[in-house]
Amino acid sequence: MKAMAVEDPQGAPPATGGHVSAPREVAASRCFLAVYLGRLRGAGETGPPALALSLDLLPTFVFSTGIMLLLAVVDEYGLGQYGLQLYLPSFWASCALTVCLITAPGAQPKSLLGAHLLAALFGVCFGHATGSLAQPIGQLLAGAFAVALLTPACLLFGWLQPSSSATAVLAVFHKQGRMHDAGYIFLVTPVLLGGLIVFACSWLMNNLIPWRPSYPLCW
């Protein structure tokens, strides 16, 4: 006797093995889409208040302004006459960490100095690598690759400092001065010297405020 296939009570043909995976794939894709759309709504946690008044606003303003003015004065009246610079826009972002979010990993000296130095090195090297290309296409490519390599490298060493990405791009566009150093003086000044000034000032100033945690948290 031949085995009879059991039909669906509603008259549907019996399912065979070759057609089982299709409904499962559709269900899986729908499930992924539903989860993805749910994630787009965010975690739903309560955010910080829209207005957070604090006595800490005053020292934050004074410290960050003082540090950047010091860099500007040394840049203009000290190093500028030798064709060197000290003032970098990315140091403003670093000051936002070192005088405001002083417990953040990026505000610690290892991250501050290490990330900026690594960023400058990548920027100068990629700038040389793309120097033979038509500009500014070569510089734009160098900046993109420098930042793309910098981010995982900083994560690897635990040096994540968001403002260092700007330093990498600035290093690519850095114009070589009278030092004939192929641009590598950029690592010494403004990056290393400027980073040391930002850290030293933040170190001395933050510890003047009794309600702030000791800075740095770690060396």
From TrEMBL:
The keyword Amino-acid biosynthesis does not apply. The keyword Transit peptide does not apply. InterPro entries: HPP, TM_HPP. It comes from the Eukaryota. Residues 60-212 form the HPP transmembrane region domain. Pfam families: TM_HPP. Residues 1-21 are annotated as: Disordered. The chain crosses the membrane at residues 57-74, 86-107, 113-133, 140-162, 182-205. Keywords: Membrane, Transmembrane, Transmembrane helix. PANTHER family: TRANSMEMBRANE PROTEIN DDB_G0269096-RELATED (PTHR33741). This is HPP family protein.
